[in-house]
Design goal:
Structural class: alpha/beta
Strand content: 5-15%
Number of strands: 6
Bound molecules: zinc ion
Strand order of the largest sheet: 3-2-1-4-6-5
Length: about 290
């Protein structure tokens, strides 16, 4: 199988074309303009230090917990904001509770679970990724919560899109705290400060229960992962190694998904449990359904 020589994206992902040197179009156009990771990190710290009161968008996954740790180190007053999508793994909830205790910060949980469930119910049966619209919905809710709290900035566990500045000019400004920070260093921060090592579920998530099911369905229809372009961008920027990316491009197995459902039983809304069960049985064919 052919891959881009730089970012490692497989050539069979839709829209990927390798040139004669085996480099994909995205690498070809972005490589000359990549910002320096060291400078990005300095900017993040500078920005955190210049904002006294911040809200941090936390889902209980690795990246947002790392962002929370950074904010707690550099800002005077921190409030955690969690959007309950209905799809947060029980382990991620446990990590959120623990982080709140350890860091002794305020925590606000917002969310209209049904709106998220409707999105999942529209997308999953059609083998479409729910991630794009779901992240937008989460983003809007966090920004609204930040305005209501009257904080000076909203801090998130994002690093993309790769502008040259980790601050997005919004009201209040958004500080993308993972800019310049490779995944292994995010893990170190979270382990050091919170004593936690979030387990990855499938693809690029350690908190969302829906993503693994969506990845499986999409992979069955298209033969590649819809996360490939995003993960390849992370490799290009130096956040992930190719090997780490390739591991995440493998779709989860049926056993893994069954185990996940078992872990979440009673924690996620029944409606979501039913949807995931149906997704699993239609992904694995009629024989192995319950
Ligand atoms: Zn590439």
């Amino acid at each position: 199988l052919k891959h881009c020589r730089v970012c490692g994206i497989p050539a069979d992902v839709e829209g990927v074309e390798l040139d004669e040197e085996g480099v994909c179009r995205a690498c070809r156009s972005q490589l000359p303009h990549l910002p320096d990771p060291g400078e990005l990190r300095e900017r993040v710290i500078e920005e955190l230090e210049s904002h006294d009161r911040v809200a941090v968008a936390v889902s209980g996954g690795l990246d947002s917990l790392a962002a929370l740790v950074l904010a707690a180190r550099h800002c005077r007053e921190v409030t955690m904001v969690t959007v309950d999508t209905g799809a947060i793994h029980p382990e991620a909830w446990r990590r959120l509770h623990l982080a709140r205790r350890r860091l002794d910060v305020e925590w606000r949980v917002v969310g209209d679970v049904d709106t998220f469930l409707e999105l999942f119910e529209r997308r999953l049966p059609r083998n479409q990724s729910p991630c794009g619209p779901c992240s937008k919905m989460i983003e809007r809710r966090c920004e609204r919560a930040a305005r209501e709290l009257g904080v000076d900035a909203l801090v998130t566990g994002h690093e993309l899109p790769h502008g040259t500045d980790p601050v997005v000019p919004k009201d209040p400004p958004v500080i993308r705290a993972m800019c310049g920070l490779p995944e292994r260093e995010r893990r170190e921060l979270v382990r050091e400060e919170l004593g936690l090592s979030p387990r990855k579920l499938a693809g690029y998530t350690s908190n969302c229960v829906v993503l693994p099911f969506a990845l499986k369905r999409f992979h069955e229809e298209h033969g590649y992962s819809f996360e490939a372009p995003r993960l390849a961008a992370m490799v290009r920027m130096g956040y992930l190694s190719k090997r780490e990316m390739w591991e995440r491009l493998e779709p989860p197995g049926e056993e893994e998904l069954r185990g996940l459902l078992e872990e979440c039983r009673g924690w996620i809304p029944r409606r979501l449990e039913r949807l995931l069960r149906e997704t699993l049985s239609s992904a694995s064919g009629p024989e192995s359904g319950e």
